[in-house]
């Protein structure tokens, strides 16, 4: 099908031709030295900003060391001061403490505390090796080594045992433990605690012989014990 341009179409087409020619002419125009074709040139403020940046300013290298204030600790990494480090190094380890306690309590027989060191000889003239006692005025514990009493522990280190705190055993408690041969239970024999006596035969019944004491006996002659029937039970419950 053949087509033609109307007057309006010719006018639009001619305008597009002129626009294209104008753009070609603009490309052929001479440029200012130092500038490209773009008209998006830097402003004076942007020029000053770029001129103030030193060469290689964006070439950042992490320093080999950083101030502690710039580092944030976490659960696995914490800072420790020299004071704290020295304190930690001066502490006993758990194994060392366990060994110290084991050596302290081994072969020790705790005795009643005395007021002064001189009272040790008075209270325990026949002391045996391993005996130990607190001396209250000194706040210390002495142990008899077989010849003399030697201070070996501060009294404040091990408190007297309580319901909630582990510590030294009271002499009364030790005497009680020494007198125990084991956990031997003896059932009471008083009234109310006696068991059904052994023996008895089929058909016998248990008679009260005394307070809390029973005895197996035969039923008296002429007495017959029969089970109630369901009808008799119903009659009773009416």
Structural class: alpha+beta
- Rounded mean pLDDT is 75
Number of helices: 7
Question: Percent of residues in beta strands?
Answer: 5-15%
In brief, what are we looking at here?
This protein has 238 residues and is α+β, with helices and mostly antiparallel strands. The protein contains seven helices and six strands. The protein has helices at residues 7-28, 44-51, 82-89, 94-105, 118-123, 171-178, 230-237, and strands at 109-110, 131-135, 140-144, 149-154, 205-210, 213-217.
How would you characterize this protein structure?
The chain has 238 residues and is α+β, with helices and mostly antiparallel strands. Among the domains are: 94-178, no CATH class; 187-238, no CATH class. Helix content is 30%, strand content 12%. The protein has helices at 7-28, 44-51, 82-89, 94-105, 118-123, 171-178, 230-237, and strands at 109-110, 131-135, 140-144, 149-154, 205-210, 213-217. The strands form two sheets. It has a four-stranded mixed β-sheet with strand order 1-2-3-4, with no helix packed on it. The protein has a two-stranded antiparallel sheet with strand order 5-6.
């Amino acid at each position: 099908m053949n087509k033609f341009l109307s007057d309006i179409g010719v006018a639009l087409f001619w305008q597009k031709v002129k626009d294209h020619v104008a753009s070609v002419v603009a490309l052929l125009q001479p440029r200012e030295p130092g500038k490209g074709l773009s008209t998006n040139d830097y402003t004076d403020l942007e020029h000053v900003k770029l001129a103030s940046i030193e060469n290689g300013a964006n070439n950042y290298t992490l320093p080999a060391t950083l101030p502690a204030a710039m580092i944030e600790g976490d659960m696995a990494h914490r800072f420790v001061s020299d004071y704290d480090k020295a304190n930690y190094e001066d502490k006993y380890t758990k194994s060392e403490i366990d060994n110290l306690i084991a050596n302290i309590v081994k072969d020790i027989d705790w005795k009643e505390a005395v007021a002064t060191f001189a009272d040790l000889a008075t209270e325990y003239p026949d002391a045996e090796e391993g005996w130990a006692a607190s001396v209250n005025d000194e706040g210390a514990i002495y142990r008899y080594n077989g010849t003399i009493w030697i201070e070996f522990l501060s009294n404040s280190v091990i408190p007297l045992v309580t319901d909630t705190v582990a510590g030294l055993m009271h002499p009364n408690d030790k005497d009680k433990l020494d007198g125990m041969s084991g956990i031997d239970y003896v059932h009471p024999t008083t009234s109310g605690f006696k068991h059904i006596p052994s023996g008895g035969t089929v058909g016998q019944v248990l008679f009260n012989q005394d307070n809390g004491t029973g005895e197996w006996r035969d039923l008296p002659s002429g007495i017959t014990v029969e089970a109630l029937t369901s009808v008799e039970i119903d009659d009773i419950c009416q």
